[in-house]
Structure formats: structure tokens, C-alpha cells
Amino acid sequence: MIYGAQGICFAVASNTGLVVIGEIIRHGRVRRAYLGIVAQTIVLPGRFAREFGEASHAVRIGGLEANGPAALAGLREGDILLSLGNSTITGIDDLFRSLGSERIGCETPISFLREGKLHQTSIWAMERLPLD
Hints:
The protein is of the alpha+beta class. It has helices at 14-27, 46-52, 69-72, 92-98, and strands at 32-34, 37-43, 57-64, 80-84, 87-88, 107-114, 117-124, 126-128. It has a single domain (32-128), classed as PDZ domain (Pdz3 Domain, Roll).
């Protein structure tokens, strides 16, 4: 027993639980896609938000894994991710939610800003393997 922790409760959304249970039944673990980036949520400069009609926040790439999916797609440190597939990326949470098992090995369009210009390319997310 942990004193002072009485009355603390944790909950998981039923939709999340169903996805997790399905993944465990099918694969023995939860499979996730990854891009091989270090990223942070940033406030998108107002002129970009107005010009490209995007949200006020986005994700900036702070580092890339050598030969990771993002590096292979031509993304660079400093690029600002705006969308992945049909999902607008307004932060790390959006990006993480967009990287479910359905993206593993599939071509996915991605849009990003580089030096103030909008770019589009495709990326093939890889499966994040569990640490042993």
C-alpha cells in the first residue's frame, strides 16, 4: 500500500482499450509506426498559419535518426510538419495518434514547411520494435 495515494484512480478510454486489446490478440503486443525523429510542438508563426490555412501549432523536427523513415523521405532538422495523411499535425500528441499500426510500411503523404515554403512528399513509416 502506498500511503497518501488512496482515492487515486486511473482510467483508459474504451476506444483505446479496444485498440490495445485487438493489437495484443493479433500480434502479442501493441504495434506502433515511427518516423525516426526527435520533435517538439511549436507555435506556428502567424503568417504561415494564415498563408497555408493551418492550425496555430505544428511540430518542428529537432533531430533525425540516420536512415530512419523521415531521413529517407528527405526531411531535415528544422522542417515543420503540418500534416500526415489526412490529419493536421498541431502537436506531438497529434503526431503520435497518427502513427498507429495501419501506417506501418504504407506510403503516406506528408506536408511540411522548409525555409518558409510549403513542401509535400511521401513517407513510409516503419514499425517501432520493442526494446529487449
